[in-house]
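Entry:
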Amino acid sequence: MNKKYIVKLTQEEREYLNKIISKGKAAATKIKHANILLKIDANSEGWTDEAAASVFSVHPNTVRGVRGRFVEEGLEAALNRKKLSRPPRTPILDGEKEAKLIALSCSEPPEGRVRWTLHLLADKMVEMKIVESISHETVRKGLKKMN
């Protein structure tokens, strides 16, 4: 298979990776990525992605990702896990909606009620079209941040 990214480690990088592996004090993924880099290095063993994946019990895409990050971003990026550029989902409550929730919770409860419940607050926020939908748990977390 024709590889897009070729890993060629320098002697210093190889020594650094061996030090990480021999100490065993780093995170498990960092040690595993160090092992992968040493095995797929074109200057030494030059294993295939599939061989390295089966030996280290990872998916071949993981090996490809480590290889790509090493070539494009450097050694530290290849060793550490990829950082998310944004949260997996956008928060339901931003600052403005959270302020409306707090104002609503401080207002008078509905007729026939002594106090607001989380379910009542969630239903009222949907009724007032502040949010499309919201769970009582999200309301609880939003109110908890007040303290």
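The longest helix spans residues 60-73.
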